[in-house]
Give the backbone structure.
Amino acid sequence: MKAGYSPCLQMVKLFGKLFGVNCSTGTLYPEMLHEFAESLGIALDARDESTHNHSLEVADMALMLAQEMLLPAQRQRVIHVAGHLHDIGKIAIP
């Protein structure tokens, strides 16, 4: 993996572009991006009863860790959204 490259962060930026959000500043519609990411996570979790609420729990835990690390608020929001999307690759698995 390239230094400074985070696939999850890149995915969040891509979704941000879809919704007109600048992930560097978080200026436009960050709640819309969050709701979209959360919805995707819930849809993924619904495929298997054993993963019920998994993405929500990962996103919340990631946010708590980011807060404990005293990261800037914008970075905390990005990490929280990335938590919702961490299993997005499972969409391709039948």
